[in-house]
Amino acid sequence: MTAYYNQNAPKKSANLSINSDLIAQAKALKINLSKLLEEQLVQIIANKKESLWVQENKEAIESYNERISINGTFSDRLRRF
Prior knowledge:
By secondary structure, the protein is mainly alpha-helical. It has a domain at about 30-75. Helices cover about 60% and strands about 0% of the residues. It is built from 3 helices and no strands. It is elongated, with a radius of gyration of 22 Å. It starts with 19 loop residues before the first helix and ends in a 10-residue tail after the last helix.
């Protein structure tokens, strides 16, 4: 899996406003909010970056797919299935 961030970067405090009931329930259930937020941010950042990559490369992807649909791939002539 591609690392989307520097995992060795130092931790930095952040001031967040979160519903007090949610915080109380998370504490009662021993949910590590910092860890949970980091895990979710990794997923969100990965999804956004992948989406941006697809957008940035849309023309090339469409061109490749068109060429393959017309000409097939090199291995098409070699396959026996």
